[in-house]
Amino acid sequence: MRIKLVAFTILTAFVASGYRSSPRQAARKVDICIYGGTAAGVIAAYTAKKMGKTVALIEPTSHLGGMTSGGLGQTDIGNKYAISGLSLDFYRRLGKHYGKFEQWIFEPHVAKKYLQQYLDEAGIKVTYQHRIVSAARKGTAISSIVFENSAKPDPATNTTIEAAMFIDCSYEGDLMARAGVSYAVGREANSEYGETINGVQLMTGHQFPDGIDPYKILGKPESGLLWGISDEKLLPDGTGDKKVQAYNYRICLTSDPANQLPITRPAGYDSTRYELLVRLMNKQPQRKTLNDYFIWSKMPNNKTDINNRNGFSTDMIGTNYAYPDADYKKRGEIIGEHEVYTKGLLYFVGHDPRVPQELRSEMLKWGYPKDEYTDTGNWSPQLYVREARRMVGNYVMTQANCEGKKVVTDGVGMAAYTMDSHNIQRIVVNGMVKNEGNVEVGGFGPYPVSYQAIVPKPAECTNLLVPVCLSATHIAYGSIRMEPVFMVLAQSAAAAAVMAIDGKLPVQKVDVAKLQKQLAANPLVTGKIQHVVVDNEDKQHVKVEGKWNTGNKGGYGPSFFASDTTTKSTQTVRFTPEIAKAGKYAAYIYLPKLPGLSSIIPLTVSDGKNQKNVSIKTADVQVVGQTSGEWVFLGDFDIAAGSNAFVEMSNKGADGLVLADAVLMVPAVK
Question: What's the angle, vertex CA 217, arms to CA 212 and CA 218, rounded to 5?
């Protein structure tokens, strides 16, 4: 009786003290839930909101924009023809910021500013620091997902979102995985999909030269392998495995002393991790510049986007295999290891006496920018997760799609980049250290990405779209996995989600032909005209006089016309755009900067009533970024509706090749 009385007294006091049980929070309900505040996530959210749906955009970290605002300022383009809709609009917004038409190289904080601009225009507030814990399903549809606080996980503070449609825009595919959708990690064997450059590949790219000893004590295997070298044996070419291509940080530094913080020795620094770099430097003493060991791309305002180069660089090879399926704690450890390795590498090159003096002196001219990543210690909060999970969806994109041997008809975006994989393991081959897994095979034109590659198999999930961790083999994903392409596919995914809601359909049953027409007719989602483009392959709007050859590498789109320099007869190509709405338009031509180009390109521009002769000095056209050409401004013109205006190129007065590729008319901004 005494025990019961004491217990009752304690309980009474506890209640009187103000204790209240924590009621379970009501689920937040929206039309479309988007997981991942990457650039793709931003575009998906903007699209869905502008199309009249309620939206939740959830980001596991405090960072907006993923790699686009995380240091990858040297945009991997492939071919500008492949970049459309809001993705292209983003790079044109950046262009206005820098005083250009389009801008493909940019500072991280500038990219973040314009991604935020989309959210502000649509009235979208991101829920930061929330990561997925679980997904509940009713039959084949996700009904809700539960999130925990990323910074302070506590089941009592978990939140739930219910939605009609879900879009996974994360680099890891965490929503997809928790929804029970099939996925792959690592490399398929070549035999699985009839490919030739998947699986194990020992190639020459980003490779060590012959003769570099892998052992701690030179010539003594019993001393053990240097850090970063695996003791696994080289398997036959094309063998599949579960290994993942290397991650790194795309590093933003500055050479401006007024905006610079010094590169200091990071906590956890271990100089033995860079012994292989010393041996590489000793093997090639003629290489004494930073560009010999890093892809040191210059960004605006004296900044960089630094990437991996050659045998030993910023890629932390072989340390990320667990990342795709790891829990959040383990992923955090892997991310931390990459940060220490990378900061340590920069410090090592600038301070270790074994590094040539020329390299040390050059490195010491650089530092962390004060105006970048101001809330994360001036270091990017986004590790470059090049590849994690890949959905095995209703259609799997393969090498054959990249090379144009298989062409899908349900494309909702295009890709154009080289089939690219960074190295996957560092091993010993014939007593020498070698990197394995690097592939860089291109030479093909833009190709469509199937709608069925961004949706799961219908038996697995019917209300989920996956535009980032989409359905593709390792080697095909290496071509598709570019930030502009992710944005294009995310816009398509969001538009499809809206159609699925309105039609009460599973995502697999969306009318793709209708979706394609909608994307083409309303690329900005606002009803405004983005531009009118005429490519040389548009026979209805292009008239050719004289002999022109066809080229297929280095232009805009699949091909371009090249004048015949063996004849003096006049050759012309006339582009006639179809103008739907009268108004003032800025006219451009696409100029590939290829060998043998004429110093002068003569053109005639007509607004439908008056003609203007224009001469372009090709030496004045500077190509910036990963592209072979630029849009060249011809002037502003008042153009009536219809097809009376034209741009005509000719070889008259040319002293070399004239390339006729594409014409663009862009409405003047009011």
Answer: 35
SS3 514: helix
> Can you read off the two tokens belonging to residue 186?
């690592």
Give pLDDT tens digits for 472-516.
999 999 999 999 999 999 999 999 999 999 999 999 999 999 999
Domain ranges of the chain: 28-184+388-421+441-521, 257-369, 532-667
Q: Hey, what are 272's tokens? A: 């033995």
Report yes or no: 161 and 30 within 8 Å, Cβ to Cβ.
Answer: yes
Answer for the pair 472, 396: CB distance below 8 angstroms, yes or no: yes
**532-667 placed in CATH 3.40.30.10:** no
- Cα–Cα distance measured from residue 472 to residue 485, given in angstroms and rounded to the nearest whole number: 14
Strands 159-168 and 464-465: parallel
Q: Specify which residues 225 forms β-bridges with.
A: 215
Q: CB of 287 within 8 A of CB of 281?
A: yes
- CB 392 within 8 Å of CB 177: no
As a three-state string, the secondary structure of 562-598 is EECCCCCCCCEEEECCCECCCEEEEEEEEEECCCCEC
Q: Is the dihedral of CA 304, 307, 309, 312 positive or negative?
A: positive
Dihedral sign, Cα of residue 264, residue 265, residue 268, residue 274: positive
Q: Distance (Å, rounded) from C-alpha 281 to C-alpha 394? A: 48
How much of the chain is helix, strand and coil, in % rounded to 5? 25, 25, 45
User: What is d(CA 77, CA 92) in angstroms, rounded to the nearest whole number?
Assistant: 14
CATH number of 28-184+388-421+441-521: 3.50.50.60
Q: Please list the alpha-helical segments (H only) found in 297-452.
A: 328-351, 357-363, 399-402
Q: Is the fold of 28-184+388-421+441-521 the same as that of 532-667?
A: no
DSSP string over 62-102:
S-SBTTTTTT--B---S-GGG--HHHHHHHHHHHHHTTSS-
Residue-wise pLDDT tens digits, 277-310: 999 999 999 999 999 999 999 999 999 999 999 9
